[in-house]
Known about the structure:
This protein is mainly alpha-helical. It is built from 31 helices and eleven strands.
Amino acid sequence: MIRKLLFRLITRQAVHHTWAVLAACVVLTMVALGLASTLELKTNFKDTLGPDDPLSIQEEYLEQNFPAVTTIMLAIEGNDRKKIISVAERLKDSLLASPEVRAVYLEQPLDYFISHALLYVPVDDLRVLDSVTAEWEDNVRGLLADPSFFKLIEVLEQVGARQSETNTTVELMTSKMFGRGLVGQGPWNGLGLEMGVSVDASKAQKLMDERWLETFRDAPLPQSQEEARLLLQRANEILALIADIVDEGERLSPEQVSQRVDELLDIDLQKLVGVSRYRVSDDGRLLLMEVSSTKNIARIDDTMKFQSLLQAHIDDILQVNPEVTISMTGFPVILKEESSAMLNNLWLVTLLGLIGILAVFVIGFERVALPSLAGIPLLMGMTWTLGLQALVYGELTLFSMAVPVLFFGVGIDFAIHIMSNFVELRAAGETPEAALQKTFDKIGAGLLTGALTTAAAFLVLLISEYYGLRALGFTAGVGVLMALCAMLVSLPCLLVIWDRRNARAHRPLPLVNFAPLGYVGKTVRRHRYMVLAFFLFATVAFAYNATSVGLDSNYMSSLPRDLPAIKTQDKILERFGTANDNIILIVDNLEQAERARKEALAASTIADVFSASSLIPPDQDKKRPYIETLKKRLEAVLPHGEPVRHPYDEKELGILKDRVAKLKGSLLEYSILAAVLYDQETQELVGKLRDKVNRIDYRIQTVSADRFRYLDRLLERELHKTVALARQITENTSVSEEDLPSSIVDRMRGKDGRWLVIARPRSNPFIDEFRTVLLKELSGIDAEIAGQIPISHRTMHILQDEIPPLTSYIFLIVSVLVLVGLRRVRGALLALIPLVVGIVWMVGIMGVMGMRFNLVSVLAVPLTVGIGIDNGVHIYHRVRLERGLSNTLLHTGKAVVLTSLTTGIGFGSLMLSIHPGFFSLGLVTTIGIFSCLIVSIFLLPALIAIFDEDTLLPDTD
């Protein structure tokens, strides 16, 4: 009774107060539009957790307390290592000149590490270094007193002579023990030699006890292969520089020589402290640098502006360096590119979907004006929905952004049912008021039941723990109700205006019959058992295939794979062996940070961990005596008085030639030793060293004394610079928190004094299997775990856990509302069958196509439940009214086909999106909608004919 009074009121107002009603709707729309303009678009999955979620609160805390934690990664790629470093340095200088840039993280603070280098050396290595410096003390003192090529060759000749003495040791070893034999090719391992002869074990033991140990107690032993290789590499580099100076003379400037010496020292010191100045791939072709902003670039507006700024600087650099490529990646870049991909494409998708819907309208009613009439209340309802969204939530999340497509697809259904019946009744001679009244009498109950069940299906999502689903449920549920209100209030007014204009122009009203649907009704009733058998077989087959459909837990599969940032991210993982997305551990102090660092490093899923705590060296008290001893030795070797100057006259050149000849002889003997003890690479280093000595020997015969005197000046300069650096290093005997470099402290310590520990996974952390193990391994660490990785994990598992029960609740609410609307248990069960079978078909077809649900397309299940119920409700309502299948399908069937087509096209338009998540959502939902349509048109009439035949008149079909 209330329903009839409501529809009569709507009809009366539409006919007698047409323009006043429309004016009120327009005013309401303008107010809603103003509210909707304040909506904030949030496309980050973090935002789907909601502002009260612990991870969202934690992310907000990170953004506020650690402003440099969110950075943009720049990947600079080229074929030359020096070139990409040079480009990176210029780009860094350019960026730091911009007030929007907070910091650029390109280099490690190597000066800090160098000045404190000895504190980062293990105690055992310091002990070795102490003995080595003791051994070389006289040589260093001699070189500082006589900083000349003449003295250097003497020192090298002496070193070479000592190394070649090990040849005698090897010969004595074999002859004393075995009389004869050859040393095998096995490498020296620092403990003994692998022997290449057959040895009697008891005899060997006896010989070792009685003679061998005593014989070789004081004999020099060869170096290990690693020690030999390091010595040879350094000797090669030093002699290469000397040979170049002898060749080039003053054409090789002191600055160029200093640069080469600094590079050698850099490499040595980096190896000493275990820190590289730049983060460069092993092949030397990819360099990484990070940039942080003064703004919060975790927010879409700020990050878009900041990335535009970065791109402008990058373009300027690339103009003069076209051989280098620079790409951006990191969470803010993926957020921006994903948002741009969605937003730039979503308007096109929505527009094309709307055009497709209107095209179906035109075909169904043979008028262009009718779709236009339907579009006006659609836009009104959408605006009202967005206005309410702004009042309640103030934002649109990733899931809510799909609502416009859903709204147009569902909202147009109401228009089709109203307009289809109105046109039929006007064509039959009814007045506009009577046509509207009878239209609502016929379809009003089904219209309200369908709208309320669809809205309730979405509003059930409000009970979800997941904010993204709650926001989607509110937007979609309110959207359906607003679409219904707009259609009931404004569409009758528009139909009356349109009808009056047609009457004045004497244009006949359009009436398009779908005659084949009437034939379908007759055929289905006649062959109802065959239809049932076919659908039963198909449903069982699809149900079997549905069992293979699972949930793709890889977050990255829901993102566009051709985004440049994702390609760069994949490249970083391939080149560096670590993912670009980090796990962030938040701790209270450096002691806790160090414990967390060690525990994270022990995890099999972690490739690398960085913490400021690792910069506090262990065992500082044990290291201090060695550092102080080294300092005293340096003081002891410093020269007093003027250094020796060499005339390089004929006599000196003769002595120099003799020393070079001895050095060549020692290297020849050493090459024989290397052939016996060491691998091919070490043997090649010996060969290269001999080549450089031969080159120097040849130049001694040809160049003037001035060339050597120039070389002496350069040697003196570089030796004193190196000693000064060594003295600086020995000055620092402790490191505390206050000594740490500011570039690291500013990034790793928060405003509240807490610290970050950054762990880099060794594989893609957005693959669920790896991510699950990763977070499980780190869960026992005494630290708060933060970042996008736990956010995506929580999002995925909330959806996995909540979608099944929510779908069940939705189905239960829908069933109850259908039962209340139809007031018959049998009728409610029959009306629900198209929905149930349609869902089975939808998932089964996915199985046949080899598809899986992903983070976005999983929403197709509750969406299809909410949308798919309408067909069964409308058809069953009309069957009870008409009491015949043929007439029902001819009239209501036409509306059902048109509404399914429009809704299917609305969601199908999402398949034009470049966003894989939206594409799959569109595809799966479209499959579900058309599955429900097929079942409604064919199976439902057959079931009514079988199980509810009393509803049908005997002769109606």
